[in-house]
């Protein structure tokens, strides 16, 4: 049996976030709402965000997906809540780089909080999109498109 | 189980490898089948010896390629018991075939207010072409419902198909539920209302005997790659008179009778539907795949797969927290089994099974309306073929138990 290899992907903290996701709810005063889908698998994320004075003052998500997509969204909301738009976008870039194996300093990775643990997903190429879906939603919501 | 099927595995070198340090158990055959050496070698033989463009070159290679191409057409005709080899059109695959009908026959015959009838178990390729046609024409798209155990509701079919129905298009075998639909009876119902009927044979031709004259459908579509042939080759069958009445789907080389400056006339059926250079190697590979299937016999294949289902389905149903979608018995169940494990998302299940070397599909299987109908967003799907065996089935069961243990459900 080689399911032991799964430990690399499904760390305890990932399973915890997936079972008890943080900020999984809608917002009363969202300034932006966005829905992103992964058409190849059917995963959906509805991201709601409240911006005040260039800061993420509230964030929440709903939707459906696998352990990786749900825990990633949960960890992302933890990471960016209270941060400036600029810092949030920087984190999104660090995350995108990290999951495809590009090197970043420990200081950079530390900015991601729990979300840094998803670097393990790079060993499972078929699952990278699960981890990045919420971060793409965030980037779009904060005004970036895929070419930025 | 028939021991002679064990040696079939030797024809498929791809199966002889380890994935994540475990023997590969390939159970994604409904997505695409693996190819035997006989088919792979045939492609090499063709390219090394006979490659030329068909129906335009006078030289010897051109003659050979054309002859092999037309022998293949005849072989498809005999394999499916069509009346006439001119009723066999080569396409890129099932999707291409179904779009061809929608954009020619559909475009020319469907009018505002007409009904198009499909079912809830259609693959997107037998759904979107009709949905879009209905939108273009202001026609009415209707869905035949399913019975509780996931079979096509024939009573509902009788209600939905009416005198306003012009076209019925139904899958022969479901790519999710594994059921075979009674296409023959549906054809009788459709014809009694003067509607044409199309069957999507993508999941059928590889696994069960198909007799087109007996089914009496007007069109039939399938792909080569799910029946051990190469990717990128498929077939559209159509009754000769219908094909003759239809306009070409594409314009270009070798589909013409004559071309003048301001008007053109078309070649006869089937050539008017085969514009441009054809996928000759694909056709010749498909022809070899048919030889391979014929050597085993479609009845034997269907019987063997049914024995596998009888072996695996009860074992799956015994697993706590596992839900099988579609019939819970083996009476009308092809070797396509969709299921979910309570508390684990299908993608996580598929990644876990892959760690045990077991390749399955997870997702909506290009059947989102069916997923909605079943009340799920996605399922795991294990689909078997004739090179799979009890060992593969046992590995799947073991991997599912491993997965449950890992995720603690």
UniProtKB/TrEMBL annotation, chain A:
Residues 10-130 form the NIF system FeS cluster assembly NifU N-terminal domain. GO terms for biological process: iron-sulfur cluster assembly. It comes from the Bacteria. SUPFAM superfamilies: SufE/NifU. GO terms for molecular function: iron ion binding; iron-sulfur cluster binding. Gene3D superfamilies: 3.90.1010.10. Transmembrane segments: none annotated. InterPro entries: NIF_FeS_clus_asmbl_NifU_N. Belongs to the NifU family. PANTHER family: IRON-SULFUR CLUSTER ASSEMBLY ENZYME NIFU HOMOLOG. This is SUF system NifU family Fe-S cluster assembly protein. It comes from Companilactobacillus nuruki.
UniProtKB/TrEMBL annotation, chain B:
PROSITE patterns: AA_TRANSFER_CLASS_5. The keyword Repressor does not apply. The keyword Transferase applies. Its EC number is 2.8.1.7. It catalyses: (sulfur carrier)-H + L-cysteine = (sulfur carrier)-SH + L-alanine. It comes from the Bacteria. GO terms for biological process: cysteine metabolic process. Its cofactor is pyridoxal 5'-phosphate. Pfam families: Aminotran_5. Keywords: Pyridoxal phosphate, Transferase. Residues 25-396 form the Aminotransferase class V domain. GO terms for molecular function: cysteine desulfurase activity; pyridoxal phosphate binding. Catalyzes the removal of elemental sulfur and selenium atoms from L-cysteine, L-cystine, L-selenocysteine, and L-selenocystine to produce L-alanine. Belongs to the class-V pyridoxal-phosphate-dependent aminotransferase family. Csd subfamily. This is Cysteine desulfurase. It comes from Companilactobacillus nuruki.
């Amino acid at each position: 049996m080689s399911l032991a290899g799964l430990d690399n992907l499904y760390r305890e903290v990932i399973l915890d976030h997936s079972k008890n996701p943080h900020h999984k709810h809608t917002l009363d005063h969202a300034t932006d709402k966005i829905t992103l889908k992964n058409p190849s698998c059917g995963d959906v994320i509805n991201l709601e965000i409240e911006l005040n004075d260039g800061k993420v003052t509230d964030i929440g998500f709903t939707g459906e997906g696998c352990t990786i997509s749900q825990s990633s969204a949960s960890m992302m909301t933890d990471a960016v809540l209270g941060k400036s738009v600029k810092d949030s976008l920087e984190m999104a870039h660090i995350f995108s780089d990290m999951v495809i194996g590009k090197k970043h300093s420990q200081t950079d990775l530390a900015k991601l909080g729990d979300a840094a643990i998803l670097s393990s997903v790079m060993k499972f190429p078929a699952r990278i999109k699960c981890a990045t879906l919420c971060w793409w939603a965030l980037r779009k919501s904060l005004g970036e498109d895929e070419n930025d | 189980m028939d021991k002679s099927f064990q040696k079939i595995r030797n024809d498929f070198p791809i199966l002889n490898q380890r994935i994540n340090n475990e023997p590969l158990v390939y159970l994604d055959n409904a997505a695409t089948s693996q190819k035997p050496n006989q088919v792979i070698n045939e492609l090499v033989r063709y390219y090394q010896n006979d490659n030329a463009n068909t129906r335009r070159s006078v030289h010897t290679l051109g003659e050979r390629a054309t002859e092999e191409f037309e022998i293949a057409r005849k072989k498809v005709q005999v394999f499916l018991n069509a009346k006439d080899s001119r009723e066999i059109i080569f396409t890129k695959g099932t999707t291409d075939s179904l779009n061809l009908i929608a954009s020619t026959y559909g475009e020319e015959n469907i009018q505002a207010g007409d009904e198009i009838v499909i079912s809830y178990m259609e693959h997107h390729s037998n759904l979107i072409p009709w949905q879009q046609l209905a939108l273009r024409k202001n026609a009415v798209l209707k869905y035949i419902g399913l019975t509780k155990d996931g079979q096509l509701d024939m009573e509902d079919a009788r209600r939905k198909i009416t005198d306003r129905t012009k076209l019925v298009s139904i899958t022969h075998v479901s790519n999710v539920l594994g059921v075979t639909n009674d296409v023959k009876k549906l054809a009788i119902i459709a014809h009694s209302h003067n509607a044409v009927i199309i069957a999507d044979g993508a999941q059928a031709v590889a696994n069960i005997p198909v007799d087109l004259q007996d089914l009496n459908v007007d069109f039939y579509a399938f792909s080569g790659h799910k029946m051990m042939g190469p990717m990128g080759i498929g077939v559209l069958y159509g009754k000769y008179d219908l094909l003759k009445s239809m306009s070409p789907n594409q314009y270009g080389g070798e589909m013409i009778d004559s071309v003048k400056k301001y008007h053109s006339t078309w070649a006869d059926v089937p050539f008017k539907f085969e514009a441009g250079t054809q996928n000759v190697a694909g056709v010749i590979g498909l022809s070899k795949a048919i030889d391979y299937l014929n050597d085993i016999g479609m009845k034997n294949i269907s019987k063997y797969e049914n024995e596998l289902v009888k072996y695996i389905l009860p074992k799956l149903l015994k697993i706590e927290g596992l839900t099988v979608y579609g019939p819970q018995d083996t009476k009308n169940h092809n070797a396509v089994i969709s299921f979910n494990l309570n508390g684990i998302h299908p993608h996580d299940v598929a990644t876990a099974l892959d760690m045990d070397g077991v390749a399955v599909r997870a997702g909506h299987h290009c059947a989102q309306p069916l997923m909605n109908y079943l009340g799920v967003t996605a399922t795991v799907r294990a689909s078997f073929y004739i090179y799979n065996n009890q060992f593969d089935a046992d590995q799947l069961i073991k991997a599912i138990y491993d997965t449950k243990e890992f995720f603690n459900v």
